[in-house]
């Protein structure tokens, strides 16, 4: 049985005991363990059914701690850390020899971030080690943005979810690495590409095929509901072909009623992409419990967080 609790001391005890705890962050809940405990890290891979070739993100409470874990901190990485930490940016940097291979899947780089959530920052401060934490969902499924989502996924396999409320950003961190000293985008996320470019200038964007081996979060099918999901330009036109089906629709801001659909979810009536991003996964989780024949989402605007939303929706439809 899983306990959902705000008791940070209890989480500390479990983590010191080489076991795992689900933790809140401002992006999504993570499944956390001591980066130096083989037992805890194996358990994370096992209960997520995550392939061992897919490396984990290391969570720290300060820039100084991050510096200890890497062998090189390029100036542009430092600028990004200063601009966005604590926050939803993960930096992939050359690792220090002390980072276990299990964390990095044998790579010579490590992914690090300082999450912006008071509960988890306090937890990290009370531990003598950083936490590895992938999103707390079975491999390929929708990431959790509430403690109850984690509970539903893992009620028989983890002993505690540290309660931290609803994740306010609601999609995963943006991942930036460096190749030949040049910044490269590995995963779109909670910080828009435009905001990154404002700080460090041009960023190389690899096409999906190039990215896949480096960041398996970029696998084509990922973040997927069980219900068949479609991403379309014109929802009205698309659903005309499915008159007798039970359909759930996700739209950005258009509140126009669609009488033939079972449920219409508008992610931001005021047209705010940040609000829409924060509601995306909880809406998918909810629609996925309604025994619909299909989920139909409209394509979001192709800028700012709209790009990140489209990225996740397109992977949910594969
Ligand atoms: O917002 C987030 O980043 C959440 C919260 C819990 O912090 N975590 C998260 O972890 O999304 P996960 O494991 O679901 O996704 C981590 C991604 C994977 O796609 C992984 O391949 C990539 O980070 N990654 C980790 N280490 C890497 C490395 N050394 N080089 C390239 N990609 C890496
Ligand atoms: Mg994930």
Automatic annotation (TrEMBL):
GO process annotations (BP): regulation of translational fidelity; tRNA processing
EC supergroup of this enzyme: transferase
Family statement: Belongs to the SUA5 family.
Sequence positions that bind ATP: 50, 54, 59, 109, 135, 143, 187, 223
Catalytic activity of the protein: L-threonine + hydrogencarbonate + ATP = L-threonylcarbamoyladenylate + diphosphate + H2O
Keyword ATP-binding: yes
Record EC number: 2.7.7.87
Cellular component annotations (GO), alphabetically ordered: cytoplasm
Subcellular location: Cytoplasm
InterPro entries: DHBP_synth_RibB-like_a/b_dom, Sua5-like_dom, Sua5/YwlC_C, Sua5_C, T(6)A37_SUA5, TC-AMP_synthase_SUA5
Pfam families, alphabetized: Sua5_C, Sua5_yciO_yrdC
Stated name of the protein: Threonylcarbamoyl-AMP synthase
Sequence ranges assigned to domain YrdC-like in this UniProt record: 5-191
Keywords, ordered alphabetically: ATP-binding, Cytoplasm, Nucleotide-binding, Nucleotidyltransferase, Transferase, tRNA processing
Job description of the protein: Required for the formation of a threonylcarbamoyl group on adenosine at position 37 (t(6)A37) in tRNAs that read codons beginning with adenine.
Matching Gene3D superfamilies: DHBP synthase, Threonylcarbamoyl-AMP synthase, C-terminal domain
One example GO MF annotation: L-threonylcarbamoyladenylate synthase
Binding site for L-threonine: 27, 113, 133, 173
């Amino acid at each position: 049985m899983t306990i959902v609790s705000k008791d940070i001391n209890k989480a500390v005890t479990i983590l010191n005991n080489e076991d795992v705890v689900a933790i809140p962050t401002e992006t999504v809940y993570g499944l956390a363990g001591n980066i130096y405990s083989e037992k805890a890290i194996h358990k994370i891979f096992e209960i997520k059914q995550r392939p061992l070739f897919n490396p984990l993100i290391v969570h720290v409470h300060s820039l100084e701690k991050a510096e200890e874990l890497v062998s090189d901190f390029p100036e542009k990485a430092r600028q990004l850390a200063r601009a966005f930490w604590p926050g939803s940016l993960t930096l992939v940097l050359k690792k220090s020899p002390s980072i276990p291979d299990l964390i990095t899947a044998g790579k010579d780089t490590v992914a690090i971030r300082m999450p912006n959530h008071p509960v988890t920052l306090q937890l990290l401060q009370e531990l003598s080690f950083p936490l590895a934490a992938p999103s707390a969902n079975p491999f390929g499924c929708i990431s959790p943005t509430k403690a109850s989502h984690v509970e539903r996924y893992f009620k028989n396999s983890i002993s505690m979810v540290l309660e931290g409320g609803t994740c306010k950003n609601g999609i995963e961190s943006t991942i930036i690495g460096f190749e030949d000293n040049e910044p490269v985008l590995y995963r779109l996320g909670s910080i828009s590409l435009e905001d990154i470019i404002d700080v460090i200038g041009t960023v190389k964007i690899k096409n999906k095929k190039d990215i896949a081996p480096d960041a398996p979060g970029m696998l084509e099918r990922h973040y997927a509901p069980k219900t068949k999901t479609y991403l379309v330009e014109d929802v009205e036109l698309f659903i005309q072909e499915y008159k007798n089906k039970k359909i759930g629709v996700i739209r950005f801001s258009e509140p126009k009623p669609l009488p033939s659909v079972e449920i219409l979810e508008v992610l931001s009536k005021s047209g705010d992409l940040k609000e829409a991003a924060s509601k995306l996964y909880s809406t998918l989780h909810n629609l996925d419990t309604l025994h619909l024949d299909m989920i139909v989402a409209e394509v979001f605007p192709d800028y700012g967080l709209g790009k990140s939303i489209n990225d996740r929706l397109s992977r949910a439809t594969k």
